[in-house]
Specification:
The chain is an all-alpha fold. The longest helix is centred in the middle third of the chain and has 21 residues.
Length: 185
């Protein structure tokens, strides 16, 4: 009986989508957006009441899902796992935001204000995510490592120590990569 349940759970649509996404199927990411985007956004808005913050967290969730390793695809409870990812991403994003220094806040606000006019809607960003794979492949290994470490919650100081580079170098490479990702999305 338990193998039947396990097999049923692995045939669940969300589980299959996550597995396809982890194996870099760009169509699966688009399907996830269309079929589960409202669900994800609704859960995010339970944590924040600000549309702009919600969209930022929404984007972070999809980037995290896009970078999903096939070994980390849940073998059951895909919906619960997705809610857990949403929760952790929202909490991490809000914690990072609250721990920024005044300089980081100024830089962040400046960058958001100057880029706000050119940032497309969240729907356009996710639909265009099929091109993100090519962009990620074009980054040098150091930038790719920085992106992965940031997604895992490391600070720029920790990343700089791990990769033996300046924190400012890590921060600027990350910012440039995110800017390129936003342009494509």
């Amino acid at each position: 009986m338990s193998s039947f349940i396990s097999e049923y759970l692995q045939n669940h649509k969300l589980y299959k989508l996550l597995y396809r996404i982890a194996n870099h199927d760009p169509e699966a990411l688009e399907i996830l957006f269309h079929d589960y985007g409202s669900f994800i956004y609704w859960h995010i808005m339970n944590y924040v009441q600000d549309k702009s913050l919600g969209e930022d967290i929404f984007q972070e969730v999809f980037i995290k899902l896009y970078l999903l390793n096939p070994q980390n695809v849940p073998n059951r409870g895909a919906t619960s796992w997705l809610i857990h990812v949403i929760h952790n991403t929202a909490v991490t994003y809000l914690e990072k935001r609250s721990h920024q220094t005044e300089k980081d806040l100024f830089d962040s606000d400046f960058n958001q204000n100057t880029e706000a006019l050119s940032i497309p809607s969240v729907e356009d960003e996710i639909i265009s995510a099929i091109y993100v794979d090519e962009l990620l492949r074009s980054f040098d290994s150091e930038t790719t490592a920085i992106l992965h470490l940031r997604q895992e919650g490391y600070t720029f100081e920790e990343i700089s120590q791990s990769l033996s580079i300046n924190a400012s170098t890590a921060r600027s490479k990350y910012a440039r990569a995110i800017q390129q990702l936003r342009k494509i999305m």
